[in-house]
Every structure is written in structure tokens, then in C-alpha cells.
Amino acid sequence: MRSLFIMRDMTKRRRGTPAGKKADKKTGKPASQPTGKPGKADKTARNLTKTLLQFLHGKRYKPSSSSELIQLLAIPEVHQPLFQEILNDLVSKKELILQRQNYSLPSTAELATGPISVHPKGFGFVKHGNGPDVFIPRHSLMDAVDGDTVEIEINPVVSAKGPEGQVIAILKRSRTHLAGTILRKTGRHYIAYAPLLGQDKPVIVKAKGTALKEGDRIICKVKEWRNADDIVEGELSRFIGHISDPSVDIKAAVEEFELPDGFTREALDEAKEYGNKVTAKDMKGRTDLSDWECVTIDPDTARDYDDAISLTRVEQGHYLLGVHIADVSHYVKPDTHLDAEALLRCNSTYFPGQCIPMLPEELSNELCSLKPKVKRLTQSVLAEFDAQGNLVDYQIHRSCIKSQKRFTYKEAFQVLQNKKKSPHAPLLNLMVELCNLFKQKRMERGSIDFAMPDDVVIVNEKGEPLKIERVEYDITHQMIEEFMLKANELVAIHLAKKGKPLIYRVHESPTAESFQDFYTFARSLGFSLPASPTHKDIQKLFQEAKTSPLLPQLSVSFIRSMRLACYSSDNIGHYGLALEHYCHFTSPIRRYTDLIIQRLLFDELPDSADVNSVATACSEKERISFRAESSVVLLKKLRLANTHFKEDPTRIYPAIVTRVKPFALFFEVPAFDLEGNIHVSKIGNDYFEFNPARMTFRGRRSGITYTAGQTIHVRLDKIDYILLQSEWALVPSPDIKAVKRGLGAKPRKL
Length: 750
What we know:
33 strands; 750 residues; 26% strand; 28% helix; alpha+beta
């Protein structure tokens, strides 16, 4: 800000008249503008140049136009022509760079181009070749939005968290339309909140005579990404529905995240041409395994069964495991309409009660789904393991199976618990036996087992949330996961040995610095760790925490400290699984990468295929689908919480403190699986001091302490569907011994 003050002081002294120039007696303006090259003799020019360069060298400067610089530096009108001359002169001397009407300083920093991924909190990442993603701070985005193709300047100094950069140009906008929700009316127009832009970037919407109201969900066409007032301008394109209507939640998410919904007529025709059953022609050249005991095990609501398991004990007490995967590559050929549609999506997107599939239902729910009692085409990984779980040999075949039973996880678990009879009980018990051997092997190589339950939102046909169902990560989930992991690993090793340019599923190793917050958090929960923990120490920590109620908080904190897994043609290994070779092969109905792997296995991938670009596209679409799914799930949870709030606004809920920051207390409300926070000023009638070493709040007067893992009690005060936020108040513990999960408790009568 110093340069701005210098400018104001200078203009006050000069009263708006450049040195050496006489003012016009009638107007008070200079009779003529200074001429000649600035910066040599004219003191005003020197001051202007100095002020400009100081401002440009500022840490938060982003490339700006001359009019923006004039506004930012408060250049008086009388000096503006001179200021423009200075800009021109600096450009001619190559002391400034003029690019797309924006001025910036020349730099020796590396430049890169790529799509930007913008986090809801405002910062972003740009993929930089095969290297680590480049972090873009919020102030360096230059109005880029998620998905834009940008040119960035990478700082030469790399921090402990990786490379950092700034956007210097937006080369291509990712979209022409925005999804938003009307906040209020202003004059003849409306102000809308667009989740893609965040709360700090409201959108002015022109509705052209259409009456809108607060809470209306709309799509608007962007007219200006940045007007003179630094506001996005849009024009109403179409109306989706009102925020109070849960039946349009998924429709709104599809629009907001621009998810492809529906298939072309050509793609549907291609899918229908295959009919609904396996033919003799389809069986040509395949290994017929239709008399094998194969079963599928999936969630209750699953309709696409893309994996089946067989397992027998063979000679010497060895195990013969069969992982049979739907052969989607038989139906979805390269350069077809079906292939184009699948690549456009890259994956299926799963919402509560509804799926946006990667493939038409004629394939995803029928011909490619390993339904019981019917023949289906598969690719089978047949692997033999010794009594200790070591691999002896393996084969990969194009095959045909006939699943004998479609189990749900719940049903399979009941059989294992002897609560339900099944002719497949011996098979399930043998699967548990091999699963435990695989788990032991995974632990030995350093993989960390979280075994966290999953909370699933159950909705009715209107999209109204009915309840949150907790799905425990029991042995049935574990054994299917172990068998899929093993098949994925074997396929990756197999293709790598053949020198195939495959798409790996990679997970970069985190830096020691990125784990510091996790170490502090773990210690604050009461777990012991050495000064410099090793991977084995972390593994031991999670083993000890398995029976602790603090395991979910510990697991979430650990996951937050790591980078996200993604797809890459460059094999850097998978840190989380402690594997050198890993790919995705087992879900080709819902993941395009798996379809590519299937083609590679039997030499059906065209030489022209660019696996690197496919890996990048699949990583990006996976991220978008995750954000879309998360936004709808969060809204459904808020709707459920609001239903309970309307029934009884005084109800108290138990909550678990998850994090303590200098400014707020963060917690999770298990009843709705929602995270909330309370600002430190609203914690209680006391002054609470933050202890960074212990990550706690302690009341100076009362001595009351709040720490991670602690149980507190809260009351819901407000739900905001538009901003996807909930507000809570900290309350005294209710006068009962326990509060049932999901029901809350009545407050004490005082």
C-alpha cells in the first residue's frame, strides 16, 4: 500500500497540474500534456514510474490492463495520458510485458499451460506435465474458474508443499453458462450465488422480464466474466426449480457440473444391436467357465454387477482365485459412438437414489451386468496362491461365466454369521480365509488399513431424505476389496512386463512436512508417536486405534494430509496401498480407464490412442463427479437435519470435536454426518485461549478445555440450503446418561 500513499501525497501537492505547465485559466486543466520520453527529466514521470514499479513488484499483483492500473493506483485524470506514455515506454524497453492488454513484469520463471482445478475454498491446482500439480493461491487465480485452460507462471522457489504459481492468462473458458441460486433482487436485476465462483463472486443476472424469487435455481449465460465493478454478469437461460424442492437436486447438480446426461441416438442404437443375451458367435475363442461356482457380492441398491468371484482349494492346500470382470471391451469398440460417449463421461456418477451411467442401460444394467443364472462375457484373472497367500502362478483369459448367486453384502454377512443358510457358505468361508492372508500381506508391505464405515443417504422417489444408513466395513466388504486389489495389481504387472503404455492408478508419496499437522493432531488425541515417525509407526498407530471411537477423526486427518490418487501414464507407484504397480481393471462398466486396460490386455487398443490424455481426462472427470456427488449428498443431509429441526428446534445432539483451530471449534454431528463449527467468540462466557502445541481451547476463567476427540453437545440454529451450511450453538450436556444416535435429546428444564 506504500506506493498508493506516495501517489496520493504527490497529487495533493501538485493540485492536479504537471510541473512546468501552466493551467488554463477557465478550466484549471493543463494547457498541454508533457512530451518527450518519461523518466529522464520530468519529476512527475519519475514518481509515477517508481510508484508503478513498486506496485507491480508487490506479491499480490496480478496482470492488469492500463485502465485497471489507473483505478488501482488512483491516478488523477490529469496524469493519465502521462501514465499511459510511461507504460508504453516500459514495454518498448522490455521492462514490462503487454499480453492480451494486460501488463506484467518479465520473468525467468517457467511457464506452463493446462486446465485448472479450483477448490471450493478458492485456491486451485494446475497439472504440470508428469510433475506434481502446481498450487495456485486464491489471489493468483486472475478470475480463472474450475476447468479453464490457463497459462501459469511457476515460481522458481519450490516450497515444502510443492511448486506454486500464478495465472497470467486465461486461454480458454471451460464453460459459457453458470448454475446459480437467486439470493435477492437489486433494481431491475437479480443477485445470484454460483457455487463454481464461491461466496465472494456474486453474479448479476438479467432476467428480461421473468420474475424470479429468492431460492430459485437457474442457469445463466455469462455475458461478462469481469465487468468494471469486478462482478460477473449473466443472462437468464433457463429455470431449474426452487431450492426447497428436493426432486430437482440431481438435475441441478447435473447442470451445475455440466455432467453429460442422456446418450446420442447412434450410441443407443449400437447398444441395442447386441440384443440381450450371449450368442454362440460371442463365445468363439473364449474359455467356458459357466459351470464354475461364481457369485457376485454388491450393495443392496446395485444394478450393475461388473465383478464375480470364484475360489477353490487345489493341490497342496493352495487356493485358485478367479476374479471375473464383465468384458465391456467386447461391446464398446474403439472409435464407435458408444466409445465416444463413454470417453465423454469417463465414469459413472452416483447420487442418492440415482446414477448417471457411463454406458447405456442396455449394457450397464443388462448385457454387461453379471446377473445370476445367465451367461455373461468376462475377462478372468485366475491366480494360484500357496497356503501363506504367496502368488504361485496366474493366467488371464477371455471367458464366459454364469453367476450362481447375487449376494448383497448384508446377505453374505448373515451367511458367514450362520444366521442364514446357503449352499455357497463353504465358498464364502474360504473367501474369508484367503482375504485374511491377503490382509496380512498388505500389512507386511506397509499398507494402512482404515476400515471406516460408510454413511449412505436413503431417499424416496421424490428425492426426500428418509434416513442415513451406516454401512459397516465388515469382512464381506474387505474380502471383495482384497480380491479386486489383487486382480488390479496382477494386471498392472502383467501389462508392464509386456511393455504396454498403460494407465496407472498412482498415489504420490507425501512429504514429511505435510504430515506435521497430522502428527500434532494424533498426539492431541492421546496417541503416542516418536519425534520423527516412520511409515511403520503410522501403521502401528492405526492398529492401536482400531477399537477407539477416535478412529474416524484420526483417519480423516490422515487422509487430508495426503495427496489425492489419480490416473497417470507415468508409474510413480501407489503410496496408500504400498504397491509399485497398480491400475484399475475391475470396474469397466463405470470407469473408462478399466475399459482401456481391457483393450490393452488383448491388443485391441489402437496405436493412435493417447493414454496420457485419457489419464488426464479421467482424473479430471473423476474429480468433477466427486464434487457433484458430494454437493448433492451434503444437501440431502441438510434437508434431513432441517426436517428434524422443524419437528423440534430445541433438540440437542451429541457431537465429536474433530479439529481445533485458532478461530473456531470444528465438530461432527453423527446424527446427520454433518460437520459444523462454532467461532471462538461464541463458545461460552469466557475468554478461550488456543494452545497450538496441544490444539486445544482453554477458558482463562473457567478452565474449561476443548480438544479433538471430545464429546460436546450442540443445538441446530439454522440451515442454509443455498450455501450448503448449517449453524450450531454449543449447549450444556443434557441431563441423561446417553443420547441415542440420530434421535438427539430434549434439553434440561431449568
